[in-house]
Amino acid sequence: MDASERQAPRLFDEVRRRMRLHHYSLRTERAYLGWIRRFILANGRRHPRTMGAVEVERFLTTLAVEGGVAASTQNQALSALLFLYREVLGIRLPWMDEVVRAKRPARVPTVLSRREVAALMAGMDGRAGVVARLLYGTGMRLMEGLRLRVKDVDFIRNEIVVRDGKGGRDRRTVLPATLAGPLQAELERARVLHRGDLEDGFGAVWLPHALARKYPSAAREFGWQYVFPALRRSRDPRDGVVRRHHLDDAVVSRAIRRARRAAGIDKPVSAHTLRHSFATHLLEDGYDIRTIQELLGHKDVATTQVYTHVLNRGGRGVVSPLDPGRAPAAAGRGSP
C-alpha cells in the first residue's frame, strides 16, 4: 500500500466494494484503482471531493500529451474517474458529462492467413496450444477461453456456451470437432486436480454474482470447475480464500510470441489476432455476417463489418493495372 492509499484507505475500500457490487472483473478493479491513485498523486494527494473539471481535464491532457498514451488508455482513465465521482462519491457534476472521450482511430485488424495460422499452431503444444486452437476455432477472447467452465462445453451439440462475455452477455459458439479429443484430455486433467483438491479440503472454485451464496454446493461440483485450471492453488485477492484459479493468460501470450518467432511471421500476433482470423476466414468461406456477429458476441453488426475488408483480395478486390490480364473496363464507361 503506497502513500496515496494510506492517506485515504476508506476511499479505496469503498471503490473496491462498489466495483464488486457492480460485478466488475478483478482486472478492471485493479486498473481503476491504479488510475484513481495516479489522479490523487498527480494533484498533491488532495481528496477527489476537493477537485473538479480542471483537475480531471488536466490529468487526461497530461496523459495524452506528455505520456503519449493511446486513446483507449485515456478513455479507461476517464471511465475510472467517472466511476469514482458517480458511483463512489455520489457526485453527479454537469462537467462530467462534458468531458470529451478521446476518439479511437479506426484500425484494420491484423489477420493471419490460413498458412500462417497453421505455421503458428505447429509451433505450439501442450495446454497453451490447446487454448490457442480453441481461440482460433471458436472466435473466443483469451479470457473467455481461460474462464471456460466444464459445464459449458457440449460435446453432443458441438457447441460452447460463453458466459458473461464482453458487455455481460452470454452466447453460443461452435466447438471444433478436431478439438474434441484435446478438450476431453483437458477435462480429465481438471478432474484429477479437482479430486485431489477435494481430498485436501479445498475444491471450491470462485463463482460470480453471489452464486456461491445462492447455490452453496455448486462451487465444489466438477461442472463449475475451469476447463484449464492452474497447476497450483493460490490465495484469491478478493476474499483471501485459497482456491484453484484458471491458467494464467501470460502463459498463453508467451507461447504465442515464441511460436510467431519460430514460424517466421513478421506481423504482430496476439491471442486476439486469432479471433480476428476466425472471423475473417469465416467470411472468406461465405458465412453470413449476422451469423459471425452472433458467434463473436458483437452487439452491433457494424463492429463485425470491419472484417469485410478481406472478403476479396487486398485493395478491396481491385486488380492493379500493373498486373497482366487485368479486368476489362466496366461496361458503359467512356474513355477519358
Automatic annotation (TrEMBL):
Domain called Tyr recombinase: residue spans: 107-320
UniProt KW keywords: DNA integration, DNA recombination, DNA-binding
MF-aspect GO terms: DNA binding
InterPro entries for the chain: CB, DNA_brk_join_enz, Integrase-like_cat_sf, Integrase_catalytic, Integrase_integron-type, Integrase_recombinase_N, Integrase_SAM-like_N, Tyrosine_recombinase_XerCD
Keyword presence, DNA-binding: yes
Signal peptide stretch: none
Entry protein name: Integron integrase
Region: Disordered, residue numbers: 317-336
Ranges of residues in domain Core-binding (CB): 6-89
Record-linked Pfam families: Phage_int_SAM_4 (PF13495), Phage_integrase (PF00589)
Protein family membership: Belongs to the 'phage' integrase family.
Biased composition (Low complexity): 324-336
NCBIfam families membership: integrase_gron (TIGR02249)
A Gene Ontology biological process term: DNA recombination
